[in-house]
Amino acid sequence: MMPLLERTSRELLFLLEPEQAHALSLAALKSGIPVCAAPRKSSRLAQTIAGLHFPNPVGMAAGYDKNAEVPDALLRLGFGFTECGTLTPRPQEGNPKPRIFRLARDCAVINRLGFNNEGHAAALARLSVRRSRTGIVGVNIGANRDSEDRIADYEEGVRAFAGLASYLTINISSPNTSGLRALQERESLSELLRRVVAARDGTQGEVGRKVPVFLKIAPDLSEEGLSDIAAEVAEKGIDGVIVSNTTLSRSGLSNATAAEEAGGLSGKPLFERATIVLAKLRRLTGSSLPIIGVGGVHSVETALEKMRAGADLVQLYTGMIFEGPGLASRIVRGLDAYAERNGLRSIAEIRDSNMQAWADRPLD
Ligand SMILES: Cc1cc2nc3c(=O)[nH]c(=O)nc-3n(C[C@H](O)[C@H](O)[C@H](O)COP(=O)(O)O)c2cc1C
Questions:
Q1: Which residue, of 69, 88, 306, 340, is most buried by count of CB atoms within 10 Å of its CB?
Q2: Would the pLDDT of 341 be above 70?
Q3: Which residue has the higher pLDDT, 180 or 221?
């Protein structure tokens, strides 16, 4: 249940255009105003995944803090990790406004931002300042819209951020940069991953470790597309997969007018599809590949279900728009209480317990 102060501030934010509300929430976080109760630490929630020590499994998804302005403030909200970006080599404006639409009745959002961001240099400067601080801060990288060699943009991102990022995410699943999702097809994916891994390996001497590389995929894939991805991920030694980005599907929406807006849909209506894709990928890849489940996580129960379907960790964004800044902290407390009630030494014990049932469901 959302506390009164959070409910009131949500109502005020909802009077603003979504992008103004987003800017105001970033400003509030930057100002350091304590917006919710301090999170709890628990050994039942801590896990080492891809060589990184996560204090809890609930992360902030990419797109909220595109320019690495508030990673530490997000960690203070209770997130166990946060992901900046998507960052492209050069700054870009993105698509014309309006380009974010709230679908309040469905607890969903449609966005067609198109990688608006300040570019590598601005984010690098901010991340350099926090270099000595702890906390898991991933960096999600992409390609400029007008780039002549998109794969080269990813290589540049790897080289730029390897020394500052806890992990890197290769985002080839945004629906708002035309042609980007084609990088998920087998031949181009193979070339992309080969070059990205080579670039990452090339930074090892300077950085002193192999920074983990995660791949973020779309939920709108076919069974065949998914098995191609599973094969390439294994062959190229990718460290983990993030499932998933927003969807182009509009099924299950009650607001027919807003549903006509172009862009990617996130929030509650994405939960089912993204969870089916996650479970199918877990079944294809086996138990050792780190998988981060994203899409429609808005409660303790939805976070638990992502893990039962095969996720090691979860991320959320849209849930926080509707449930307020205390959501991560409430989910973390709820997961810990669940683990305690059920006598679990680690929340990871529930992973995959519903995987077969989710993975058997059709992708229509
Ligand atoms: C306004 C908005 C902007 C986003 N921008 C990015 C982005 O820049 N890069 C990215 O990988 N995902 C981006 N996403 C996708 C989210 O990271 C996440 O994968 C998706 O929204 C599903 O999670 P959710 O239902 O919890 O929001 C964005 C989502 C929203 C709503």
A1: 306
A2: yes
A3: 221
Domain chopping of the chain, boundaries: 4-359
Listed as own residue / partner, the contacts of 24-30 with beta carbons closer than 8 Å and 24 or more positions apart are 25/325, 26/65, 26/69, 26/70, 29/70, 29/73, 29/74, 29/77, 29/325, 30/69, 30/70, 30/73
Higher pLDDT pick, 195 / 132 = 195
Tens-place pLDDT, residues 204-235: 999 999 999 999 999 999 999 999 999 999 99
Biggest distance spanned by C-alpha atoms of the chain? 55
What is the Å distance from ligand 1's center to 317 Cα? 6
Q: Among this protein's residues, is 353 annotated catalytic? A: no
Task: Establish whether residue 294 lines the binding site of ligand 1, counting it when its CB lies within 6 angstroms of any ligand atom.
Answer: yes
Catalytic residue among 147, 173, 174, 266: 174
| Ligand 1 site, residue 21, Cβ cutoff 6 A | no
Ligand 1 atom closest to Cα of residue 268: 25
Domain 4-359, CATH among 3.30.70.1150, 1.10.10.10, 3.40.800.20, 3.20.20.70: 3.20.20.70
**In 3-state terms, what secondary structure has residue 102?**
strand
Q: Is the pLDDT at 69 greater than 90, yes or no?
A: yes
Judge whether residue 14 has pLDDT over 90. Answer: no
